[in-house]
């Protein structure tokens, strides 16, 4: 295969999500203020900015207020302020307790926040960045970190295009590009492919708790205008998740008679028979949710893993030549159920750190350890520290005990309880043998409120070039059938929200079939596989879901 | 020889098209848009003609609001030399008005070859190329699956019902592309940057002296009927009965 060409920039940013775009915008602003004339480039694996963005989302504007104080005049797509918060504990498939506002942990109050599509916010941020002179390249996946001879990061390479399923170049073969930079900022979101490589190479997670994850599934519905209450935010936990499985649903009434509904299932669940997708389809049947969806029409579907380990699992975010920002490190505030504001803020801080260094004559490749102090001095640290016990409390004490502790911690002492709860078992090590757990009998989809997986994937507009190598790498191809199947009934069949993994038997015994073209890039398989045998890598750029307003 | 290529901004072929709740049109809000695939094939063919030496310049033209600049830039990243943007408020003027506007561009630019997609995947009209050729009184070859240019003559293989037809045309001519003409290249990152610096001229229907006519009015858009789920029948007799009395196909 032919040689790769290279291009040089001052800063290369991997991922056009909120944290990557905030890095880009802040860099461009500061570069212009200080007349540094930095060249800034953002690569994004989605076919366009926003195509792979999926979030609730209720957005706190604190970081945005700092980045673009005039965001309203610039027509940022935040138009639906939260008007009312409801929190429910679902007791069974019919009943629920509504929590009085005074008993809800303070972090779950949303006064002043906005219901929005994070994808659209990213599209808007990209437009701001381009106006500031940033080069944004959607459709190009960063698939490789480039290291210099001092072991420092010197940039990334984008993936080759036009390689066949057999690994051989096709007529359309176009080699990837090497994008070299003084500093590279990794903003891939939760469980980033390159972030994972960097965490291992530089041992960034040394001394912190393992990261914990959840899978978020979301649908967008056009609802009956008579049932629509713009600004209403509904959260809840409990049914149908049980026996120590944590998570919760959300339902947000956004503009244009649309409702975003979703379920987060924590990936530390232990029953391999559990299917987050089917739990989501089931929770929509509860009257608390179904009453709004009645007569409505589902218009979009998607799923994405999220990092919820918070403060205790936060790795070092700097290393020679680069920085990790946002959920590539795991800066989501789980107590607020929000990560956009912290993602934006860490991106801005990264930009400030880089400008400070380059402005002082740094030529690149240094370990910007000052980023750590910058984070510690910011409100991101304050928030994440104050909420460090929130998720571990729920995991260890259950929803009532943990909820009570969180109420005490967040509402009465402001996150200053003099101890830290830890959760040291990684999510992939939590599954119990299938034989020791009861299979879950999920109701069949009714085609009204609940649907099958494939018709859902259809609504994610997912597409991959068919003739390309499989982007889900098995370190040992025998493990799914030899180990995962007998021990855990191959849980990939159920945790994958897009039907990528199937055990099929054509008469010659069971085998694992990987339908890689269905993949919605959620990364759950990379996280939850009990053998840690699956590595998710970016497929040919431009592939994956094409989320419209998610 | 100069080649003029017309491109249309359409909803991306991967996106599931959704009808607006009020049935006034399809919903384009925040939906991914792309160059119409047949137009992309036309751009690719023009760039290949230039690379082979048969063409000297590739000019790409599009009509619509400012957003169509994205598609003109994409075509320039593929290798077109310059762009012409005819600014209109409407996203789709209809084939007749588009052909009139393009005819005026052809009169101004005097290309040796005009390449268009055979149809756009949104409205599926398959009219613009034919109308344009008629207005200009140029020879036309539609549904091209192979194109060679030698001197002032083009040889075009067309995909027709039941086989292939080969035509020889005197240039200037209008050729519309079919799916098998070529496979468009992957755009390279440096070419996207170069495309940002290529010239893009802006004009308008008024400047071109064309008044777009509202020939057609869109009354309503309906999605196709949703597929019904299958049923398992107990016996052959039940199947025959279902085909006769429920599906009414026997």
From TrEMBL, chain A:
Catalytic activity as recorded in UniProt: a ubiquinone + reduced [electron-transfer flavoprotein] = a ubiquinol + oxidized [electron-transfer flavoprotein] + H(+)
Superkingdom of the source species: Bacteria
InterPro entries per the UniProt record, alphabetical: 4Fe4S_Fe-S-bd (IPR017896), ETF-QO (IPR040156), ETF-QO/FixC_UQ-bd (IPR049398), ETF-QO/FixX_C (IPR007859), FAD/NAD-bd_sf (IPR036188)
The organism's taxonomic lineage, starting at the top: Bacteria, Pseudomonadati, Pseudomonadota, Gammaproteobacteria, Chromatiales
Domain annotation 4Fe-4S ferredoxin-type: ranges: 510-539
Gene3D superfamilies: 3.30.70.20, 3.30.9.90, FAD/NAD(P)-binding domain
Enzyme Commission (EC) number: 1.5.5.1
Protein name listed in UniProt: Electron transfer flavoprotein-ubiquinone oxidoreductase
GO MF: 4 iron, 4 sulfur cluster binding; electron-transferring-flavoprotein dehydrogenase activity; metal ion binding
Record's keyword terms, sorted: 4Fe-4S, Electron transport, FAD, Flavoprotein, Iron, Iron-sulfur, Metal-binding, Oxidoreductase, Transport, Ubiquinone
The protein's role, per its UniProt record: Accepts electrons from ETF and reduces ubiquinone.
UniProt remark on cofactor binding: Binds 1 [4Fe-4S] cluster.
Automatic annotation (TrEMBL), chain B:
GO biological-process terms attached to the record: carboxylic acid catabolic process
UniProt name for this protein: Electron transfer flavoprotein subunit beta
Record-level Gene Ontology MF annotations: electron transfer activity
Electron transfer flavoprotein alpha/beta-subunit N-terminal domain residues: 23-212
The entry's keywords: Electron transport, Transport
Family statement drawn from the similarity comment of this UniProt entry: Belongs to the ETF beta-subunit/FixA family.
Cofactor dependence: AMP
Functional description taken from the UniProt entry: The electron transfer flavoprotein serves as a specific electron acceptor for other dehydrogenases. It transfers the electrons to the main respiratory chain via ETF-ubiquinone oxidoreductase (ETF dehydrogenase).
One Pfam short name: ETF
Quaternary organization: Heterodimer of an alpha and a beta subunit.
